[in-house]
User: What shape does this take?
Amino acid sequence: MRFGGIFRTLGFQIALAMSTLIIGVSALVVWQVGGLLRQNEMDRYTDEIIASRDQLSQQIATDRELSTTGAIVLANQADMRAAIEDGEVVSILQFASEYYQRTSSPLPGTPGLQVYDAEGELIVRAHDPLRGRQRVVPKEVRQVISTRTALGVIRIDELLGPSVVGIAPVFDDNENVVGAIEVLTALDQSYLRERSRILGVEMALLTEDGVVQADSDVGVERGDITEADRQEAFLHGTVMLDLGDGSYLSTILPLRSFDEDWVADLYLGIDESVILEGVSEVRWAAMRATAIGAALAVILTGGLAFVAVRPLRELVDAARRIQANDLDTPIGTGGPTEVLELADALDDLRLAVRQSREAMISVNRDLASKMDQSTASLTDATQELAVMHGVLGALSSDAPGGLGGVVETLIELDWADGALIALANEEGRLSSAASAGMTPVAREALISLIERGVRGQRIESGIVVADTGDLPDSLRMYEIGGFAAQPMVEPDGVAGIVAVTTRRALRLTPSRTELL
Assistant: This one.
């Protein structure tokens, strides 16, 4: 037989057709796997960046409340009120310096403090005393002076630029407004870099005057985000932006003043290459597995095609089922042994493709599980943040019963069944000031145990007992399975304790310890 005649044989034509079909099915499966993985990753990162935007919005709201609380605390100091009323700049600077030494700012941005008179005119900038002139009285300061109410806002400061501020009025002994105190934290690069690190996204702040970037690699400019981009981000949550040499999955958080005027836009983005990196790894793994299976099937098909020339219809139908993603129907046919072996090879290919699909489904389940865990962690953090806000609200309220509000807020925690605040008298003995979720007998038993100390733990450094069943004086009869007590320390000693109890054994995580 001449060499050219081989190409005209039925066996060769069957082998060529089957090989082409197998390779096509494998390529189709790989393409579908890649497309599904990419879509799943895009959906996951879309949910992640929207959650980051919402978390950042909550964090900025918290920062405003912290700044407002600091301004109120400083405005209520008698010495500071007297200095503002008399216009004593040196005394104001001294009190401001002492305030900064006692309370370090929890916010990452550049801090600032400004004092105004009753007309809203700037008396002094504590963070830059030599630059005491202002171009215009901020409308936020006028609002606080006119309404006699503290205010937490976002505004553009003349020196610090976009800032989180808290403004509180200062009253004299006759309840007349004599000025205002403003505590500021600049939304500068250090602020954005810290928030970017926590959230795991790239960030930039866009104002009318320019751009503040958390990282120089972001490369976003004021003109890169159009009004159409903002509308799409508002409607769909995210928008794809071409920035520099790459594309970014982006969202925008607008910042507004107290009267709803636009102040700036916070840009959050994730590089598309980061999203596709995990997709590429899984895609290449699927391609390798499919290519190996396809290569083996092609080799086997080529060897058997020259003798399997009769019962080919069932094999073609089976291949088409695979092409249609029917991976559950077994491949069966009759005929010579060689044809049966070819059917077995196609069935192996079907199983390999199905395993690839199941692997993809398993990856999706893992991604969903991680997302659920992240959601649970965010829920816990949100609850703890809400409790913290409730405690601050109870402590800063002018209404009586503030400590009672604190303990009632503490037992809203899922892991806390009881709460106790006890104050120390001149002899150092503790007495209950407020409690919730505890009987009087259980409360006195717990105070007695804390005063004596437990296993070398003293009240001065805090006492944590995970399981009271191990103690000689068990508290389980009072439905106290575990407790944690933290001291309230003043310069002259321990002023009291705050304790949280559980009916079962206490599991105190780092975040719960930090909350206490």
User: Anything to note?
Assistant: The mean pLDDT is 79.
